[in-house]
From TrEMBL:
Residues 18-64 form the HTH cro/C1-type domain. This is Rha family transcriptional regulator. The lineage of its organism: Bacteria, Bacillati, Bacillota, Bacilli, Bacillales. It comes from the Bacteria. PROSITE patterns: HTH_CROC1. It holds the Pfam family HTH_3.
Amino acid sequence: MKIVAKSEVFARTRIVSGMSQRELARQAGISHSYISLLERSMKSVGPATAKRISDVLQRPVEDLFDIR
């Protein structure tokens, strides 16, 4: 099982929230380069990290990520 970001939704949600990749990363406790990889669907994410990111962006996990 892999959890991957829905690239366009993920990036759009971050931008509409007024956050840079660095700010989202800081608030979620991960690196900004990891956010960049997620936005390009080049990296999968663990359930706990997906939850932290969705909490910061105030969106349900299912809106931002796909389980494959």
